[in-house]
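Worked example 2:
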Amino acid sequence: MTTRTSQPTAQAASHSHTQNSGALLSVQHLHKAFGGNQAVNDVSFNLQAGELLAVIGPNGAGKSTTFNLVNGQLAPDSGSITLDGVSLLGRQPHDLWRMGVSRTFQIAQTFGSLTVAENVQMALLSADGESLSPWQRATRYRRDDALALLAQVHLHDQASRPCNALAYGDVKRLELAMALANQPRLLLMDEPTAGMAPDERHALMDLTRHLVNQRGVAVLFTEHSMDVVFEHADRVLVMARGALIAEGTPAQIQDDPQVQAVYFGSGKTFGVASSQRSSFAMPAASKTGEKA
């Protein structure tokens, strides 16, 4: 495990450069400030194809800002973001979508008045750069492809149901199918299990892992449920007050004293029995307006 400070050592910089070779996503020395608040401070990390990388930290740690920088919703003050060696700086989210970057949201982004299949067909239309007239529906557009995507997330039998009639766990699986419409190389998942029951949380992440293995997609996700992080992530990045303070495997992060201090204060532990599947609440960090 690597424990970080706000001023990286030469050894850490060299390690980051070495890891960059072969990385699908490379984020280097990212900075973003809002007024006097340094929301993201010299953040660097790499993500390989086929890897699930979790970003955790207290409220206000800089996770959402980092996410929005990678997704093109915000522009960094300095630093670089590359996807397979191609710079993502200056590109809007719709540009990144067509480059193979998909995103799911804490609150699922679906069309409640359309059927389940039509939701996926709308995503396929967008991936193809096509559009419909206001009075048209996507009912016939690449329907077989839409049904194939729904089958991958186990929603094929609900294709004709209105989206607003689905249970919330099914809505989250539908959003995942929509995110796969552009055949992504990088999938950004913002608190993918928020609002879900424990069994649903783990079922969704098991499904995500299966799709990652099948498609070789790289996944960067934020998550407040520590049971989800420790059971499903390959590696974990820990942020506090805009900086990365640690990175490592879930087991290494659980045992790190600095991480424990950031979350719970000294003397506490991250340990979670697999049978408990508990979710830890996170304290808010001070002097920042960021929620996550």
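The two ends are 24 Å apart (CA to CA). DSSP finds ten helices and eleven strands in the chain.
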